[in-house]
Automatic annotation (TrEMBL):
Residue span, Helicase ATP-binding domain: 1-269
Ranges where the record places region Disordered: 121-140
Organism whose genome encodes this protein: Mumia zhuanghuii
Keyword Glycosyltransferase included in the entry's annotation: no
Record's protein name: ATP-dependent helicase DinG
Bias (Basic and acidic residues) ranges: 125-140
EC code(s) of this entry: 5.6.2.3
Length: 644
């Protein structure tokens, strides 16, 4: 892998690398990155991996580099501004909606805030990083009291504490670094939105690359709700002399009235009432923003004015985007259960492939790596999702061209905008999946329906868990399904502890699951990826159904229709690829080291019967496969006996 990444850097050619669990893929790209003669940006999807790179992998490599390199490379971490404590907010306070400075709250929250303020001052005194990961234990609410978002920041030119600012110091350190570690969202904002977040670079490594499209989409998703507009209007009232803030608050009523008669779900074409409300919000926010003075007036603070201007302008930009009703965006009304503010409008790009192709791959050399990049046995599905066409793959028939592949749904237009030739390799795995793991598909069970799990499926779960002696990670398609299965197993197998997501915080549940090898842990999507529980504590992974996206998912359904309009198979390109990725990730929870053994049991008979089943199974690790129920129950009993 290291040689392939090094060659890609040297040739300026994009590379996709599938590197299974246990290959040490972070070292596979970090070594050539540290040896490269230009700055390399490494982007991760999760804080866990970022922490691993910064705290363990990179320091170990730099220690080794000192003995073989004339000059030791420098590295830095860049996070979003909200991840750093803000000294201006801590020292000057934060204004409330009436412009009055907020004091530290009372009670346990107040104690957390006081502790965080003291920690931030200590960090400043010793030139520390001042980021959230190094802070004392705290809640989300407490952190909001000592940090600001980018739109609320005064900026280095106007902030009296700019020289001490943790975020500014992090950017300065990055400007002098050979290796910069960041996240997918910041990379997207820098490369795609054109907002400078990172120092100059032309070489990028994207780890956890199977998440890239989702994270880029998330970074480009915006929300608008009546409470958001109303809050901006009320905050602005202290800074405008005319009726502009009142007009913006009146626009809130128009938006609220329009949303009350708009059904939840995708809005293919806004009604006249909704379109008029969005235009009214847009125009009122623009007028309100323009009415605010550029300089502080008597009794005002730069921080308060900057914060309000940013909030009002955010309302304007989102309303403007929604009012435009562009075909490149998906607009929908999302239900917010239990929220006093009611439902909210959301908007997201329907497709990010061409944007990634133009702004990321067209401007940089990019290496994508993950344990799950091959779907259906090949790289095409993931490559297309990021704007790399199969006909441009090095060695593809006909060479690197920009022709459209028949029936793949790839847009020919815009494809010739940049030279984006690419290659792909699968570096394999240190595990022998055929000997270490079995894939069992419960072919005899009825296909899953909409009315909850069938009694036969619940019986199957109980029998599998009993045979395994617990030791089970249950991955379910919904919270309701996880809770139903937990209740039945607890009732029928009282000797086995069943932990269910929601019973406690996930780290606590994971700890208890790991400490008790006979326990079960049942949960939903957050357990499908990034959970590492090696050894006999997890010898059975149950997947209740194929994780297709919901049919009413506004974004997925819009993407599916887009592929179909381009002549492709929308179901396979979107729904099946989404399911294949999650199945591969879920099955990957079983084998985490060379001596692990176990079974992945999929209780959805469609995996064995449907035409798309082979595409899905070929996306999973190459385990020994069977539909023989008694054979699997016997294997689980033997594994339990050996581990006891």
């Amino acid at each position: 892998m290291a040689e392939a990444v090094s060659d890609a850097f040297a040739r300026g050619e994009h590379l996709l690398v599938q590197a299974g669990t246990g290959t040490g893929k972070s070292l596979g790209y970090l070594v050539p990155s540290l040896l490269h003669n230009r700055r390399v940006v490494v982007a991760t999807a999760t804080l866990n991996l970022q922490h691993q790179l910064v705290e363990r992998d990179i320091p170990a490599l730099l220690d080794g580099a000192r003995t073989v390199l004339a000059q030791t490379p420098k590295h830095a971490v860049v996070k979003g501004r909200g991840n750093y404590a803000c000294l201006h907010r801590i020292r000057e306070g934060a204004p409330d909606e009436q412009g009055v400075l907020i004091e530290a709250p009372s009670g346990s929250l107040g104690e957390e805030v006081v502790t965080l303020r003291a920690w931030a001052e200590e960090e400043s005194d010793r030139s520390g990083v001042g980021d959230r990961d190094s802070a004392p234990s705290h809640t989300e609410r407490a952190w909001r009291q000592v940090s600001v978002h980018a739109r609320e920041c005064l900026g280095a030119a106007r902030c009296p504490y700019a020289q001490e600012c943790f975020a500014e110091r992090a950017r300065d350190t990055a400007a002098d670094a050979d290796l910069v570690v960041t996240n997918h969202a910041l990379l997207a904002i820098d490369a795609i939105d054109g907002v400078p977040m990172l120092p100059e670079y032309d070489t990028v490594v994207v780890d956890e690359a199977h998440e890239l499209v989702a994270r880029v989409t998330q970074a480009s998703t915006a929300e608008l709700s009546p409470p958001m507009v109303e809050r901006a209007a009320r905050r602005a009232r202290a800074f405008v002399r005319g009726r502009e803030a009142d007009d913006l608050e009146d626009a809130t009523d128009a938006l609220r009235d329009a949303l009350e008669v708009t059904p939840p779900g995708r809005i293919a074409s806004p009604t006249d009432q909704l379109a008029d409300a969005l235009i009214l919000v847009r125009d009122s926010a623009r007028a309100c923003h323009s009415a605010m003075p550029k300089e502080s007036q008597e009794g005002e603070t730069d921080a308060a004015r900057q914060q309000v201007k940013g909030l009002v302008d955010e309302v304007r930009k989102v309303a403007e985007r929604m009012a435009a009703a562009s075909e490149s965006d998906v607009l929908w009304l999302a239900e917010r259960e239990g929220s006093r503010g009611g439902n909210e409008l959301r908007i997201a790009p329907v497709d990010v492939a061409l944007t990634l192709r133009d702004k990321l791959f067209g401007e940089n050399t990019v290496v994508l790596t993950s344990a799950t990049l091959k779907l259906g046995g090949g790289f095409d599905a993931v490559a297309r999702s990021v704007g790399l066409w199969g006909s441009e793959q090095v060695g593809a028939t006909g060479g690197a061209t920009t022709a459209r592949e028949p029936g793949d749904g790839t847009p020919a237009e815009g494809a010739a905008a940049a030279d984006v030739t690419w290659d792909a390799i699968d570096v394999g795995s240190p595990f022998d999946y055929a000997k270490q793991a079995m894939l069992y598909v419960a072919r005899h069970l009825p296909p899953p329906g909409r009315d909850g799990m069938a009694e036969a499926t619940l019986d199957e779960i109980v029998d599998l868990v009993q045979a395994a002696g617990g030791r089970t990670l249950g991955l379910f398609s919904s919270r309701r399904a996880a809770e139903a299965a937990s209740e039945v197993v607890r009732e029928r197998l009282p000797e086995i502890e069943v932990l269910c997501q929601g019973d406690a915080q996930l780290p606590e549940l994971a700890r208890r699951f790991t400490e008790d090898p006979h326990a079960c842990l049942f949960g939903t999507l957050s357990l499908w990826q990034g959970v590492d529980m090696p050894g006999p504590t997890c010898q059975l992974v149950i997947i209740d159904r194929i994780p297709f996206p919901r049919p009413d998912d506004p974004l997925m359904s819009a993407r599916q229709r887009l592929v179909e309009r381009r002549g492709g198979n929308g179901f396979m390109a979107v729904a099946a690829s989404h399911a294949a990725l999650l199945l591969a990730q879920g099955a990957g929870r079983l084998i985490r080291r060379a001596d692990d053994r176990g079974v992945v049991a999929v209780l959805d008979s469609r995996l064995a019967k449907a035409r798309y089943g082979s595409f899905l199974t070929s996306s999973m690790p190459p385990m020994w496969r069977t539909v023989d129920r008694e054979l699997i129950l016997g294997a689980l009993r033997r594994l339990d006996a050996a581990a006891s």
